[in-house]
Design goal:
It is built from 9 helices and no strands. By secondary structure, it is mainly alpha-helical. The longest helix has 27 residues.
Length: about 210
């Protein structure tokens, strides 16, 4: 019963608006655009190593990916500044964080499986795109239906990567570039607007759940 009430509160308009306000205050729009370009550069470099250098060693690619993760952290820090201790992260924000943490853990697992199988190339790499697709499905359900466009882009990119494995890094780079720039531009067009609903409005939203309890 309590889990059902928590799920209802997680997907309320209040929680979604809170996440939207956070994205605007922390400049997630410009940050996502910059991360999109960083990802394009990083995975284009991986593509060049594969196609022109015929390099397939794990250390080189791992160095690039760790560098990209560090660059992503730096971009969000520079765009949004240090995160204040108060207030604590909202439940919907925590869910979004955990979804993408799970994505990175599973992506690392795919790379490990590929190495253990002894493949010269990253044969399992196309499976990373459906993982991203699933993450965007979760965002479509709990945050905004417009994320479904990203679901389609990543789904199609996975098919293209499987059909053109030699150019999979470049396809993946362009797919994420399109998705991150589209989300960043969409956030950039929004305005903070009115203040968050007050406590009275929040109580009205939660009243049905409370009465059900």
């Amino acid at each position: 019963m309590h889990e059902g009430l928590a799920a209802m509160e997680l997907t309320t308009t209040v929680e979604r608006d809170r996440l939207r306000r956070l994205a605007l205050e922390r400049n997630w729009g410009p940050a996502l655009i910059l991360v999109g370009w960083l990802h394009l550069v990083a995975f284009s470099l991986c593509w060049c190593l594969t196609v022109f250098v015929d390099y397939h060693g794990a250390p080189g690619y791992l160095t690039i990916w760790i560098g990209e993760l560090c660059g992503t952290w730096a971009i969000f820090r520079l765009c949004g500044g240090p995160r204040p201790a108060d207030p604590p992260p909202a439940p919907l924000e925590l869910l979004v964080r955990r979804v993408w943490l799970a994505y990175f853990v599973l992506a690392f697992n795919l790379a490990s499986l590929n190495t253990l199988r002894g493949h010269a190339m990253f044969e399992f790499f196309p499976a990373i795109a459906p993982l991203a697709s699933f993450a965007f499905i979760v965002l479509t359900v709990v945050v905004n239906r417009s994320f479904f466009a990203a679901v389609v882009v990543m789904f199609v990119s996975g098919l293209l990567m499987a059909a053109n494995l030699l150019h999979a890094f470049l396809i993946f780079a362009v797919a994420w570039w399109l998705v991150l720039n589209a989300i960043g531009l969409a956030l950039g067009r929004q305005r903070p607007g009115a203040a968050l609903p007050d406590d009275e409005a929040s109580v009205r939203v939660r009243t049905p759940a409370a009465s059900a309890h």
